[in-house]
Amino acid sequence: xxxxxxxxxxxxxxxxxxxxxxxxxxxxxxxxxxxxxxxxxxxxxxxxxxxxxxxxxxxxxxxxxxxxxxxxxxxxxxxxxxxxxxxxxxxxxxxxxxxxxxxxxxxxxxxxxxxxxxxxxxxxxxxxxxxxxxxxxxxxxxxxxxxxxxxxxxxxxxxxxxxxxxxxxxxxxx
Length: 174
Fold this sequence. Notes:
Layout: E1 2-6, H1 13-23, E2 27-29, H2 33-40, H3 58-73, E3 76-80, H4 86-98, E4 103-109, H5 112-120, H6 129-132, H7 135-149, E5 151-154, H8 160-173
Parallel strand pairs: 1-3, 1-4, 2-3, 4-5
InterPro entries: P-loop_NTPase (IPR027417)
Organism: Cryobacterium flavum
Protein name: AAA domain-containing protein
């Protein structure tokens, strides 16, 4: 099974995924961003883009990587990855479903003011124009399709470990 943690950059997906992994039996974290990093390392580079998700190979490689890891290890993959383009989500989730892999899709949500504050005051990354740039696309995706496709966990007033507990409880109750 896959527990997919979606949400905008700065929402706490990576931190929360580590807590979720500890709460679910036989779980591992697979960050699909690493697949994008592999593509970014191709020399000479692939066509210029502002987001590796736009490269056609990224989406099927995410599916294939997850499938192969699950085939090898079994258990659960916790995958923290922002996907805000609906057709990209459909391609990934459809590919996983075709392989018979159940997906529990969650969105870590916080209001815009909280997200801006978290990005501005991030002690590890500092303020990030890259992360700020995704606030509006996230708001649009949340309004049009994303919140209908996932279980929304409002993290505005809770910690990452509390969000992880809600996610683990939901997964284990299904």
